[in-house]
User: Which sequence fits this backbone?
């Protein structure tokens, strides 16, 4: 106990949370009138991951998933360069399976999911050999839904919010989760919808000013069946997601437009335009899993087959385009696209099929250990089409196997593993050259066999206090949206947006050192060294703005971060009295502080580092009303890939009031996000060639609303809970290690 008190004093107020046990969910069991409650932790620091609980944090789950993600401490999310966590590029998974989308499509997908359908988010900063090497720097695994019960249960979640900038706009989300079990099988069904009206104001240097009214409609259904076959289990899952969005844009700009409708005679002009863009996405996933179990609970054998199909359509119509030519002010601007439908008409289809097997068993190694091995085969086909022309045919086959050992020796934990992957990437691209001649060319092939080692050592100083060092090598394949040669965003006369089908994979070497205490407090340093990092380039050439994807030959990202909880009772109670408490984080007033420093090193570019700050405060008011305040800030004048932030990416202050009723079955929250309207993005590009460009975008992030969560009461309070069958993301009895994803 003396050692514990001493360690707690070193990390200030961390002692408040030291009595909490590690749990994966809030559970209640009524036995002879006695109720035992285990409380979820808001934030947990593990050796290889950070876990954020969404289900019990109204400040995170009162909007859509993207809004909740942007509030996570240490996470940077931008429209120009995707998502990073503590200096590592994120591969986004949903329930243990990669989404295989990034940038615009990813944002639209996450905006279409209600945040109250998410149970927790795990950010795996050190993926081991059991994870595909394509996980890149880190994995953000979004885990949805609740546990199934041996009786019919239902939970309704709803949300309404509004914004009022130039006009009133509404947003609604609704979802229902049903689950039950009989003597033959268990089943779960989760369905939901999201309707969102929003605004986007944008500026691209002096070439374009735009105002966009956005109408987003999202729907999803997730289903699961589980059959118990003795000790074994068969799982069947089918999920479907649909997004249907319309963006109405009024813009004015400065560029080169066709003179007298001659597309080869472009002349300087000032113009105004009205356009509408339509996006329609369908995503379907089917997974079959067979779990073989043995008398020894630590011995497991899993087989899984998965299939994913994603269909995407993007079209843009022009209502009108008017203006004047600089040298010919009396000549009317009669654009060839004026009033035309489908000035853009692009489609894409992605199909992914995979089969994997995983095996694990304990072995006699030092003071105890475990061996894991398995394999994966995956086939991906991706085709894009523009105005009926198939301009990209992309194929990838991946075959891999892994072997990993874990062992203990006194106070040390060791992990050593390696993954071998063979890639066969090929394809064909088609395009029209300057003479309008159709050209067909082969993609740069990538046919290589590579090893990806990983190693970690952890020294357990005392109970729940450890220091860990990690290394892994990973690869990141170019995202589907980066490969797509077609434009799937708003297009103006002065803007040209292109994917790059010849992008090469990125190789990462990731190093990390971290000290953690009682799951909440930590301090760490990491560096990611990347070869062929994929990055976005925005440059200006004359009166034309180009948005492109390129490979950076060499790049390093340094990241230092620290997190610390501060209970307010340290200001009012003596240390000796505080140590007598058995604390529940849901019942005390505290503040969680996070700070991180990140620096991007790119050849021939002098990038300055930036700081990320996040403060989350919880105050328990009378009548058990919980007030949660969240403030995040990212310092400006710093380098982020090939951009310099002129204003902070993140600068928001959010408030949430929550009250539970009816024995905690009903939860009501009222909230206000970005109260001071400080969330804005303004950057200046630093392209390797061409002229720099100022990019500005402002969403209507200040919003107010009401959130409700109602758990319909059940008759049988003693019924036993089953594991979740909609998100098989963990290997049972394996210390919370996420199941290897496809």
Assistant:
């Amino acid at each position: 106990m003396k050692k514990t008190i001493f360690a707690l004093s070193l990390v200030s107020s961390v002692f408040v949370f030291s009595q909490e046990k590690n749990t994966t969910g809030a559970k209640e069991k009524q036995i002879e009138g006695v109720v035992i409650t285990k409380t979820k932790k808001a934030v947990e620091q593990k050796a290889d991951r950070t876990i954020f609980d969404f289900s019990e944090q109204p400040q995170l789950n009162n909007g859509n998933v993207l809004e909740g993600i942007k509030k996570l401490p240490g996470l940077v999310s931008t429209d120009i360069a995707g998502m990073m966590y503590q200096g590592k590029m994120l591969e986004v998974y949903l329930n243990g399976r990669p989404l295989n989308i990034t940038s615009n499509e990813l944002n639209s997908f996450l905006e279409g999911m209600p945040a109250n359908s998410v149970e927790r988010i795990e950010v795996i900063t050190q993926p081991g050999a059991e994870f595909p090497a394509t996980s890149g720097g880190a994995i953000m695994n979004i885990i949805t839904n609740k546990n199934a019960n041996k009786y019919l249960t239902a939970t309704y979640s709803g949300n309404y919010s509004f914004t009022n900038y130039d006009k009133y706009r509404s947003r609604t989300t609704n979802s229902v989760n049903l689950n039950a079990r009989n003597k033959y099988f268990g089943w779960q069904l989760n369905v939901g919808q999201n309707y969102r009206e929003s605004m986007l104001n944008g500026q691209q240097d002096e070439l374009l000013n735009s105002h966009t009214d956005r109408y987003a409609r999202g729907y999803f259904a997730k289903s699961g069946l589980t059959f118990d076959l003795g000790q074994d289990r068969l799982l069947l899952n089918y999920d479907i997601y649909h997004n249907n969005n319309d963006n109405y844009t009024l813009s004015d700009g400065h560029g080169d437009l066709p003179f007298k409708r001659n597309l080869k005679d472009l002349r300087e002009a000032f113009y105004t335009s009205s356009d509408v863009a339509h996006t329609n996405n369908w995503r379907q996933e089917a997974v079959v899993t067979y779990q073989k179990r043995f008398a020894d609970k630590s011995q497991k054998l899993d087989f899984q087959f998965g299939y994913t199909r994603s269909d995407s359509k993007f079209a843009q119509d022009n209502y009108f385009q008017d203006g004047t030519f600089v040298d010919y002010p009396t000549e009317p601007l009669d654009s060839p696209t004026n009033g035309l439908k489908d000035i853009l008409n692009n489609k894409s289809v992605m199909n992914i099929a995979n089969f994997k097997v995983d095996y694990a068993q304990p072995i006699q190694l030092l003071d105890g250990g475990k061996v894991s091995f398995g394999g994966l085969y995956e086939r991906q086909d991706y085709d894009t089409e523009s105005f009926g022309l198939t301009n990209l045919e992309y194929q990838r086959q991946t075959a891999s196997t892994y072997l990993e050992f874990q062992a203990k020796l006194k106070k040390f934990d060791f992990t050593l593993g390696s993954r071998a992957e063979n890639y066969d990437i090929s394809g064909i691209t088609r395009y029209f050259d300057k003479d309008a001649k159709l050209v067909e060319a082969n993609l740069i092939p990538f046919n290589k066999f590579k090893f990806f080692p990983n190693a970690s050592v952890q020294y357990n100083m005392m109970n729940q206090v450890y220091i860990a060092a990690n290394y892994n090598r990973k690869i990141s394949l170019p995202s589907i949206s980066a490969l797509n040669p077609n434009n799937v965003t708003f297009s103006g006369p002065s803007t040209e947006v292109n994917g790059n089908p010849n992008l090469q994979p990125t190789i990462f070497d990731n190093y990390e050192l971290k000290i953690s205490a009682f799951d909440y407090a930590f301090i760490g340093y990491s560096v990611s060294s990347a070869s062929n990092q994929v990055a976005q380039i925005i440059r200006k050439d004359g009166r034309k703005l180009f948005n492109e994807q390129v490979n950076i030959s060499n790049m390093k990202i340094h990241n230092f971060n620290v997190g610390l909880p501060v209970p307010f009772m340290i200001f009012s109670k003596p240390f000796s009295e505080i140590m007598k408490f058995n604390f529940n984080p849901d019942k005390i007033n505290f503040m969680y502080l996070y700070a991180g420093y990140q620096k991007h090193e790119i050849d021939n570019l002098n990038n300055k580092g930036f700081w990320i700050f996040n403060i989350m405060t919880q105050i328990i008011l009378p009548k058990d009303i919980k007030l949660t305040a969240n403030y995040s800030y990212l310092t400006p004048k710093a380098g982020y890939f090939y951009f310099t932030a002129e204003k902070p990416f993140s600068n928001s202050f959010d408030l949430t009031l929550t009250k539970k009723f009816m024995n905690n079955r009903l939860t009501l929250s009222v909230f206000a996000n970005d109260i001071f309207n400080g969330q804005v993005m303004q950057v200046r590009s630093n392209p390797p060639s061409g002229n720099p460009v100022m990019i500005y975008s402002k969403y209507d992030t200040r919003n107010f609303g009401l959130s409700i969560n109602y758990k319909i009461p059940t008759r049988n309070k003693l019924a036993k809970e089953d594991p979740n069958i909609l998100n098989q993301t963990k290997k049972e009895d394996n210390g919370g290690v996420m199941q290897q994803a496809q």
